[in-house]
Structures are given as structure tokens and as C-alpha cells.
Amino acid sequence: MNHSIKSIRPFIGAKNFEVSRSFYRDLGFEEVVLESNFSVFKSGDTAFYLQDYYDKNWIENTMIFLEVDDAERYYNELFALNLTEKYGVKLTPTRHLDWGSECFLHDPSGVLWHFGTFKK
């Protein structure tokens, strides 16, 4: 197969669609409303879809890895947003491993985001 991939856009759900929309805008993603219950959130060439749909088993087993330039800096910026106070979410500090570094953030519905940097 010859893959000429332009992007990959995961679909995630939301327990409370309006709260999740606000959360992702606070993270700095640009929202494009596609329908009243469906939006795409973009940052540069990276994007994901948020839908007003919640299934506990699906959401709590969804993980997304977002590669960033500096996981430690990214964690500090996430911490400064006071997301835990504003949304009641869990933010886990950066851990440094053999392959690189990552921090973790659960969104308001339970989706687990990994923000990581690979060693070169």
C-alpha cells in the first residue's frame, strides 16, 4: 500500500458537550461548528472531532497521544490554565522515561490525553 495520508482525526464524545467545547477552546484549539452537536477542533494541521454523544465504556477507554515539542513546558502551560479547578479534571505531572517524556490530562468526560516528547 502507498499511503498518502493528509491527516488523521479521531472522534471523541462528550458527557456534557458545552463543557467539553469550553475545555478544548481553553486548551487553545480553534473550534469549527459543523452541526449543533458536532464540532472539529484544530491546531495547525492537527484536528479531532467532538460529538455530543457519551458512552461511559467508550469514553473512559479512549486515549489520545499528542506529540509536542517539549512535554515539560506543555505540562507547565496546562497547569497554569487552572483546568483542575475550572473543570474538575485530572492533570498528572510529566514523567521521564527511556523513550521520552509525557504528562497526562483527562478531559471533563474522561478521555485520557497523553502529551509527549520522544527522545531523538
TrEMBL record:
Keyword Oxidoreductase: yes
GO MF annotation list: dioxygenase activity
Highest taxon above the source species: Bacteria
Entry keyword Oxidoreductase: yes
Any Pfam family the entry gives: Glyoxalase
Annotated keywords: Dioxygenase, Oxidoreductase
Gene3D superfamilies the record matches: 2,3-Dihydroxybiphenyl 1,2-Dioxygenase, domain 1 (3.10.180.10)
Signal peptide start-end: none
InterPro entries assigned to the protein according to its UniProt record, in alphabetical order: Glyas_Bleomycin-R_OHBP_Dase, Glyas_Fos-R_dOase_dom
Domain Glyoxalase/fosfomycin resistance/dioxygenase: 12-115
Protein name listed in UniProt: Catechol 2,3-dioxygenase
